[in-house]
Amino acid sequence: MANLNYFLWLTTRKGFQPAETWAVLQFFGTPERAYYAAPEEYDLLGLPAGKQAALLDKDLSEAEDILAQCERLHINIMTIQDADYPERLGQIDDPPCVLYWKGRPLRLDDALTVGVVGTRSCTPYGEEMAGKLGLELARAGCTLVSGMAEGIDAAGIRGALQAGGTVVSVLGGGIDVVYPKQHRWLYQDVMAAGTLLSEYPPGTEHAGFHFPIRNRILSGLSLGVAVVEAGEPSGALITARLALDQNREVFAFPGPANGPASVGTNRLIQRGEAKLILSVGDILEELAPLFPGRVKLQEPMDEEEAAQRLAAVRPLPRGPERRRAAPKAEREKTEKEEKEVDKTPQRAYISLSDDPEAFTDDERAVLLALRDKPLTADELTEAAQIPARRALSALTMLQVRSLVEERTGKRFYACVILTP
Fold it and tell me: CATH classification of 348-419 is 3.30.70.3400, yes or no?
């Protein structure tokens, strides 16, 4: 337990990037030695004064609080010096020194793991391909590794779960912080069939800058990464680049030449950075020889059965499409209720009093600025009265949560209205 305290102390030093934390651990060998090192020893690390000051802060109360939270929430902790730490993850340049996990114990060194990534704003084609890929990977005995975002991530996870497969979801925040909120049940399903994994302690919000950092773990755990759909730029392309740097295989589904969601995948294929795939068989052709006799490509499921399985786990669409998909009686009831309430069409009200912590101060400012009309990024920054960097960061997070949309003329539109 004492050793774990020092690991948590080291991994919570303010301002440290994972590579810097790993460098400190490598230099001293153990977190205890790093903790008890003399100030002049920190000079040998070549760190800026601010980061040396962070190492000179010997307060262990934060580490103790994390341990207490993990015990209360039944969250497990694994360090890079533990025997069950995934070997292939430990071989990347900047492995996480501590992992928090919940669900089934990680048994990945003997598993054929495939990362499935792609855009949140996927097309029906992308959702179908990701769902089928997850389904067939699971049927072949592979472990699917992904995030927990809407779109491609969720479609691939649902497909794997429908086939009874194992899923590892790598998160960009604390395991106890469900993000996006509508994936609460998907979190539960993944914990039952696999593992939720994060390098962030419980209570950590899912900040935008966490996801590119998180992606190195996703690719590091995988033998190969399949990109289903990706625009340009895209977080999925960051994962593909990390996979290439880590000597992992990269695969990509081709898409329409004029499709915004396929620009990134088509470019990967064009540059020779990804192998073009049409089915899970193209992935297993490359990876299955690494596990002779342990992975078996099943006969492809016929289209009708696959469609039925995936339809059973596909979430209902949002907004007007959800109403059209609902039974007639339910649709009429919804339309009647909406007429009785003074609402802007397609925009829901969100009460801040119901969940005061649902938004950061910057996110509130952005949503309030967009309440009456769509704005460009420059107009939004001026209306929100916050620095441009913060406004754009909040805007990105709101888009990820489908609370803001970019529309014609690069104007941003609030999909919800805040009320006191």
Answer: no
